[in-house]
Amino acid sequence: MISPSEVPVDATRTEQRLAALLRQAPLEFARVVYGINDRAAGRHQSMAAEDVARAERQHGITVTRDRAEQRARGYLPVAGHEHCPRCWVFSGTKTLLSFHDSEDGSIETAKCRNCGAEYASASF
């Protein structure tokens, strides 16, 4: 049986998938900044602050704005081995995404098994 991430995908769809993921890296960087600022202001219950705390607990590293910015700028998924932008920007880990189509085939969802992030893109 072929896993969802190994399903053959045409070139156009692959380009759309990579472009959609590339657009997510700056958004994940913004999430890091909000999380760091929330924690500094004592707002530890926001989702962004919890994401920063989880990344620090899981990987034993301090999440910094500068390092997250470098990772966001350097995020480059490879066709067939697309990795999670959130895991990459927050902690520098390359967790492979699994892709699933909706029942009607109009939406493709990428899910990360490590952080739980989901990314949706329209399939044409």
Helix content: 40-55%
> Which strand order does the major sheet show?
1-2-3
Shape: elongated
Instruction: Output the radius of gyration.
Output: 15 Å
| Average pLDDT | 89
Element-level helix/strand string:
HHHHEEE
The helix count comes to: 4
Distance between the termini: 25 Å
Structural class: alpha+beta
Largest sheet: 3 strands, antiparallel
Q: Oligomeric status of the shown chains?
A: single chain
Number of domains: 1
Which strand-content bin applies to the residues? 5-15%
The count of β-strands is 3
Show unreliable segments: none
Name a few traits of the molecule.
124 residues; alpha+beta; 4 helices; elongated
Task: Write up this protein.
The chain is 48% helix and 13% strand. A hairpin with a 5-residue loop joins strand 1 and strand 2 (107-112). The protein contains four helices and three strands. The mean pLDDT is 89. The protein has a three-stranded antiparallel beta sheet, with helices on one face. The chain has one domain (10-122). It has 124 residues and is α+β, with helices and mostly antiparallel strands.
